[in-house]
Amino acid sequence: MRNLMVTGGAGFIGSNFTRYMLEKYPDYTVLVYDKLTYAGNLDNLKDVAARFGDRYAFVQGDICDAATVREAIRAYDVDTIVNFAAESHVDRSIMNPDAFIKTDVYGTYVLLEATRELGLERMHQVSTDEVYGHVPEGASKETDPVAPRSPYAASKASADLMVNAYHITYGLPVTITRGANNIGPYQYPEKVVPLFVTNALDDQPLPLYGDGKQVRDYQYVLDHCEAIDLVLHKGEIGEIYNVGTGTEMRNIDMTRLVLKLLGKPESLIQPVRDRPGHDRRYALDVTKIRALGWEPGHTCEEAIEKTVRWYVENEWWWRPIKSGERYREYYRRQYAGREIT
Catalytic residue numbers? Predict the structure, then answer.
């Protein structure tokens, strides 16, 4: 394993993973393959291109395009695919499920076929805790059945099942990680933490769903990257690994912490009508990944604090996004008229 293709590598987690791997492994090369949808942004990789130009390359392409995928693999002598490419926002999956089925399900199939036909060493699928659905008590183990409740979660669960099927049917060398809520640098500001931070910086309302008592595990993105790296090098072929802090935080408490860190008043919190089918609680049992020697480097609180600081210090990155008409139109569609008074 020396020549990685990171699909979706211009997105949030993918760009952080690309940077992490190039910094850690001086003999590795990374090809970022990305469609550059609204959430794919070459600004996420600007420093990577400058620092690692001899070991880093970029190809713009869709993972649903089998011919372009194979061409890129051959051209850059890829031996391992790490698949971050996905439509990933639950709210957008409710607006437009079609895009999620195409990219998350069919796109994963295309990558599996390429891995099989070209004899690659590994395909790693980056998945989500949302495939387990609402977890009223306890914590989800990798052996638990999937029970997705949103089009996004269903598309990711379908992809996971296909990855597992290719391992069983064809003996394909695959691994899967299912991550909790990632936060950190370069996360598109439709997601709740960067949305709330950037809104608060501008003294704009923070649209909090329902009563805000939904429970999540907020993990720092580089902790997740370290876990994927460990699974690539020490994980067992055909296995799934949950990745998270193993702790919980209510969304209302996350919101209050963001405001406290920024010195902003809680009067900025604006309850809005809840998301349809909103899962109340996710929780991951991370015993299996810990057995490989991994531990999260940040608590939920530390991850939020570090994330807040990054957005405060990097207005150059997020302000052009939020001032663009495409973002503004999405925001109007998503939140206009949903206020709870």
Answer: 129-130, 152
